[in-house]
Amino acid sequence: MTRGSFNIEQLFNGKRVFIPIVLGLAIVVFMLYRSLSKEQFIVDAEKGTHAWVDSNANQKVDLSLPEEFVLSEEGNYRISTPNDLLRDVHFNGQAIFWLIMAFVCMVIRDLAYMLRIRILTKKFLSWRRSFFVIMIWEFASALSPGVVGGSAVAMFILNREGVKLGKSTAIIVVTTLMDNLVFVFLIPLVLIFIPLSVFFDGNANLLTSFFWIGYAIITGLSLFLFLSIFIWPNIITSLLRLMMKIPFLKRWRKAAVGMGNDIKVTAKEMQGESLSHWLKAFGATLLSWFGRYAVINCILQAFVSISLMDHVQILGKQLILWLVMMVSITPGGSGIAEYAFSELLAGFGASMLLLAVLAIIWRLISYFPYLFIGVYVLPNWLRSTQQKKK
């Protein structure tokens, strides 16, 4: 790496290419194995092997705590794993159709993201290059805590595709702003028609706290991002210069100043864009989020009979679900996502046992594929962009 420049080429040369691939594949296998093999007690009056003893005296059956159960011939609980539960699910024609539709919704979501990145780059990226960018972006998001996401990596992905680093940063800021505005605008609209009590029962204090903390964070971040690009683009430049005063960052001061100047130039270009340009970009954002949300609707429809109004309510609940995941500290919202899924959708005619299965199916469709795709796409993308000028 040359002094005073953001040269990331060396990170992707030679043997270093295989490091993220091997680590990524290892993480994929581990997380999938952990999700499918995690043991939990379930209610089974016919084949029960354990009895509940309430060891922590909270008068609540904690199915995930082994110390809550003891071996008993007359017990009505038994140990099971998501993998066991998946084998017990009956996949008829209707279920298969709606699961296919769930995959179609994920495709719609990704196509909408590809359309948005093409709009924001003025079609600098082809559809093929946009596919690579979005897949690797999602791969990074899947491996990052929800509160971090893949945005920090995305600017370097665009930069490697030939977009100036300053412009890449501005584009990522705008995409983050648009994603956040979906929550900022739609959540109050949903709460006008559906009280918060419908989303959370009296025992879901953890989710309620995550919701209000998450909404405050997203709203504040949206305001900051809007001001940074459309009102005072000098904010980002000033922050960069302030950061470069840190001793071990001084070597990149010149490059940071250049990046800040690129951001200001890009911000001025964006301020001059027409209303139709922003409506198209935000329309693609809404379509992508609708595709993401509709996945859960399709999965529920595959196994549970729900009405049209139920579908509308489920879409509203997912605003809460995804906001909770966005402020999680686990990779891809793992753990919190499954818990939130069961808590938010428990009132739609499905047992907690079935919801546990559906949560796994949901993650298998909407989360794990990006890990596998990323591991496959990453080396091809690195080779195809190796000679591009940054």
UniProtKB/TrEMBL annotation:
InterPro entries in the cross-refs: L-PG_synthase/AglD
GO cellular component: plasma membrane
Keyword Transmembrane helix recorded: yes
Cellular location(s): Cell membrane
Keyword presence, Transmembrane helix: yes
Major subcellular site: membrane
A Pfam family the protein falls into: LPG_synthase_TM
Keywords: Cell membrane, Membrane, Transmembrane, Transmembrane helix
Residues annotated as transmembrane: 17-36, 95-115, 136-158, 170-200, 212-235, 289-308, 320-341, 353-378
Membrane topology type: Multi-pass membrane protein
Superkingdom to which the source organism belongs: Bacteria
Xref: NCBIfam families: flippase-like domain
PANTHER family in UniProt: INTEGRAL MEMBRANE PROTEIN, PHOSPHATIDYLGLYCEROL LYSYLTRANSFERASE
Protein name (Swiss-Prot/TrEMBL): Lysylphosphatidylglycerol synthase TM region
Native organism: Lishizhenia tianjinensis
